[in-house]
Specification:
With 355 residues, the chain is an alpha/beta fold. Helix content is 21%, strand content 30%. The strands form 4 sheets. Strands 1, 9, 10, 11, 12, 13 and 14 form a 7-stranded mixed β-sheet that branches. The relative contact order is 0.12.
């Protein structure tokens, strides 16, 4: 199930039109099946098209359409500035071709997929409740779940416009199991549907894996994972993989997780319930709501999670490899802290920008 003709499994995509996408001034061209975006099709073909969020927010996947026609999935996507629009730039993650196309883009070797993304039907087989508004949703596909710890998949919900990116919380496996720790967001159409309508046996369209912020076990530095909200999901996958990788036996593994109130903190139970994590992972938690912390008798750290990272690691920050995921204010604050205050090189910082 790794050939291109088998990349769409179990979703009824039969006899669809293929368009050819040619990259200007290069020898590369690739097929794009009807309804697929240029970005996803390029990654399915094994090409290193630049991207991060794959959902229109970050702007990393800008291209120019030199010839051909496309439909914009999200014309007002925040990843495009007024200047980009004036210059005719597009987001490859939002462009669905309606004809053969020629595009201008600079390929990125680092974005070449280690596992070509597969679009298929996934069946929900278990829901693990973690907090009042966060749960681990466990899906299964007919094909193996091959991904790197820290990557994400795109889920498509009936009657919900646009795909939603959720990171896997489990490890790659041959059984086709894909687990996602998801937080129910106020007003979130996708997460609300999952929490209120989905039950065991229900199906969803799963497309993945994607993402570049995955574990690099060959790097000889201690590992620091930082998460907030649903950002816990990829960090759980990373620490699970790191705890089992013999190359990292002499490395420290840190998990920092922040929530608004003590009720949002579930990492202690997750780590205590896994023998390999309990033996290896050093866990720190912080809550940001002072009143809620006092009311609950919380005796842990109070404040933002990036502040706890700084307090704990201090001037030793440049000696670590950082992986993080969470709300944009958290990732922005942590990036500024690492780069500007502690001079951590950007190549030691790994995160996918979701907006």
């Amino acid at each position: 199930m790794t050939g291109y003709n088998n990349l769409f499994i179990g979703i009824g995509s039969i006899n669809l039109t293929n368009y050819t996408i040619k990259i200007n001034e290069q020898e590369f061209e690739f097929p794009c099946e009807e309804g697929d975006t240029i970005l996803r099709a390029g990654l399915r073909a094994g090409l290193g098209l630049p991207y991060e969020c794959n959902s229109g927010g970050c702007g990393s996947c800008k291209i120019e359409i030199l010839n051909g026609e496309v439909d914009d999935v999200w014309e007002d996507a925040p990843g495009l500035s007024p200047r980009d629009i004036k210059k005719g730039r597009k987001l490859s993650c939002q462009c669905i071709p309606t004809s053969d196309c020629e595009i201008k883009v600079r390929l990125n070797h680092d974005a070449m997929p280690m596992h070509k993304p597969i679009k298929s039907t996934a069946s929900l087989y278990k829901i693990n409740r973690l907090t009042d508004d966060m749960a681990e949703f466990c899906f299964k596909t007919e094909h193996p779940a091959r991904f790197e710890p820290g990557q994400f998949a795109l889920l498509d919900f009936p009657n919900v416009v646009g795909s939603r990116g959720y990171s896997m919380s489990n490890l790659p496996n041959e059984q086709g199991e894909w687990h996602f720790i998801i937080k129910k967001m106020p007003g979130g159409s996708a997460s609300t549907k999952l929490f209120e309508n989905y039950k065991e046996g229900d199906e969803i369209v799963l497309d993945g894996p994607y993402g570049l912020a995955f574990l690099k076990p060959e790097i000889p530095r201690d590992i620091v994972c930082v998460g907030g909200g649903s950002g816990l999901s990829p960090e759980m996958s990373i620490i699970k993989a790191a705890a089992k990788d013999e190359r990292l036996n002499d490395r420290n593994i840190y998990l920092f997780y922040g929530g608004r109130t003590p009720k949002d903190i579930c990492t202690t139970a997750l780590i205590e319930g896994d023998a390999s994590l309990k033996a290896r992972v050093i866990n720190y938690n912080a809550v940001s709501d002072i009143e809620a912390a006092e009311a609950a008798g919380w005796d842990g750290a109070v404040g933002f999670i990036h502040e706890l990272v700084a307090k704990t690691l201090g001037d030793k920050m440049p000696q670590h490899e950082f992986y993080f995921c969470g709300p944009p204010p958290m990732t922005d604050a942590l990036t500024r802290l690492l780069v500007m205050d502690y001079k951590v090189p950007m190549e030691q910082i790994h995160y996918d920008r979701f907006y």
